[in-house]
Structure formats: C-alpha cells, structure tokens
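Reminder to self: tokens first, then the designed residues, so the page reads top to bottom the way the pipeline ran.
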C-alpha cells in the first residue's frame, strides 16, 4: 500500500507540533528531545557557530527556563 505524500507531510507536521508543545511546556522527556534532534538532523537543519546568537534568541523564546552557559571547567 502506497501512502500519499501529503498524508506523510501532515503526520510529520503533527509530530513536530507535539514535540514543540512538550518542549515549550517543559514536559519533554529525554526521548522527546532525542526525537526532535533526530528530526532536525534528518531534515538538514543544524546550528553553525555563526548562527549561535540567533539560535540562542530562538531558544530563549521557546524554552520555559533560561539555559545556563556551559561551564569551561567541566569536560564533557
């Protein structure tokens, strides 16, 4: 059975919207975040260093908390 591309696009949109909702309201699990990262990667969306300021601004608008800057004393 072949599924119409528009149905798959609708499904992907629903998944993205649900992940965004969970991330914004703070209920996202580690699995949700991993799924979101994978979805971004699979769609060719990445953050380069030159985009860091814009990315920080966008994350600040989405996240229910303020991310802490990385601690240079911690090796990760």
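Designed residues (76 positions):
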């Amino acid at each position: 059975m072949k599924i119409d591309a528009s149905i798959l696009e609708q499904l992907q949109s629903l998944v993205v919207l649900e992940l965004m909702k969970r991330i914004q309201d703070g209920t996202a699990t580690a699995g949700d975040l991993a799924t979101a990262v994978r979805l971004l990667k699979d769609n060719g969306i990445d953050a380069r260093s030159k985009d860091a300021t814009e990315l920080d601004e966008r994350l600040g608008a989405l996240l229910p908390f303020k991310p802490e800057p990385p601690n240079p004393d911690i090796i990760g």
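The CA atoms of residues 60 and 66 lie 6 Å apart.
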